Amino acid sequence: MQQEVVKSQRVVRPVKSKKFSIGSAFMYVILTAWAMTTIYPLFWIVNNSFKTSRDVMNNSFKIAFDPVMINYENAFERINIGRSYINSLIMSGSAVLLVLLFGGLAAYVLSRFNFKGKRTIYSILYATLLIPAFATVVPVYEILIKTSLVNTYPGLIFPQTAGNLTFAILVIAGYMATIPKELEEAAFIDGCNRWQMFVKLFVPITRPAFASVSIFVFLWSYNDLFSALIFVNKENVRPIVALLNEISSQYGTDFGLMATAVALTVIPVLIIYLFISKFIEKGLTEGAVKG
User: Where are the transmembrane segments (predicted)?
Assistant: First the structure.
């Protein structure tokens, strides 16, 4: 009987309702506006890619309820966009591999060894981040001419590798510096040399930093129109971003074809980003540069 009285006398606490502040409302309005300005242009491009050039000119904001595929057929037959896709993947993929190889080795030395001039090297690396890419175009182009690398795959791969190497070294070195020395000593006891230790110990542990660096390097090299226009301008080695500039000059009146080429260029990168965004977020925190 007493237990029933106690149960009946239990105090029911009111559920606290979350307060809706003006600051939160303002933040959501800003984020919504930013999302619309980012998403709508992409939708506008994809929508116009299913229209003829005349429809794009007359009413570009109308939804294409009756889509046409002629623009996509012309993209692969008339301007050979598939070849440009292959060129971009070869150049960007090769740049990523070289950056990870040389950047990882340099980061391993800087993070795990103490030697004279180490601070100077770090200062030089940080200083190179302040130099714009435009300032190095003339000497790089002159080197490519003397080595006969203009309009070749290495003619864009090597400059992309050199341009992204500093970023890779600093990010990977900052991550490797956080690895405990006890793991390194245990590897020495097990008989590992420096190369085995780098491959079997540091590379697996530093995988988030390597992943974030590879993602950024691929996106930067894939979207680098400036270098593509200068260092490689022949059709057989032309990347896809350079193809867009050529379409705007040769087929300037065919707006449907231009919209299709832009959509085919952007959508694959967007899909890749959606699948690997978690690695980017993880790399920004775990692979942060430490002084």
Answer: 20-46, 89-110, 122-144, 156-177, 198-222, 255-276
Is the predicted pLDDT of residue 290 greater than 50, yes or no?
A: no
Query: pTM for the full model?
Result: 0.76
CB 231 within 8 A of CB 144: yes
Average pLDDT of the residues of the chain: 81
* In the block, residue with structure tokens 């008989």: 191
DSSP string of the chain? -HHHHHHHT---PPPPPPP--HHHHHHHHHHHHHHHHHHHHHHHHHHHTTS-HHHHHH-TTS--SS---HHHHHHHHTS-HHHHHHHHHHHHHHHHHHHHHHHHHHHHHHHH---TTHHHHHHHHHHHTTS-GGGGHHHHHHHHHHTT-TTSHHHHHHHHHHHHHHHHHHHHHHHHTTS-HHHHHHHHHTT--HHHHIIIIIHHHTHHHHHHHHHHHHHHHHT-HHHHHHH--SGGG--HHHHHHHHHHHSTT-HHHHHHHHHHHHHHHHHHHHHHHHHHHHHHHHT----
pLDDT average, residue stretch 110-116: 88
Enter the tokens of residue 221: 């090299």
Q: Collect all residues with Cβ–Cβ distance below 8 Å to 257 and sequence separation of at least 6.
A: 53, 71, 74, 75, 78, 79, 247, 251
Q: Where are the domains of the chain?
A: 22-68, 73-254+272-286
Q: Token pair for residue 262?
A: 């832009």
Percent of the chain with pLDDT over 70: 86
